[in-house]
Amino acid sequence: MQGVFFEGETFNAYQFVTELVRGAKSSLILIDNYVDDTVLTLFTKRSHNVSVTIYTKQVSKQLALDLEKYNSQYAHINVKIFDKSHDRFLIIDEKELYHIGASLKDLGKKWFAFSKMDLSMSRILEKLAENQ
């Protein structure tokens, strides 16, 4: 599966990622250097038993506050500092890997492509574990 969303297709892009989030059965891992409260809102669409870990390059004071408020009301989201990735990835249930050209907070603002990658997840998960 692969495709392109064009500038202005904000809702379609958001809906696409929402369906990925809703389809998760056990876990979601997001690698995205630009996370804000809109990304947290997206994760309210997950099932309550689905864990979420976000890898991002920094946690601003605003994001820390947003995360604190989110975690006080919804199932906990774990955020880890990670600055080794330029691209954005969404890993679903440690089985499916999506490469997403835009930051989740910017879906549909400009053209971006996405693709489901047919790769073994073990190497990627090992590399993430090394950086914890």
From TrEMBL:
Protein's name in the database: DNA-binding protein
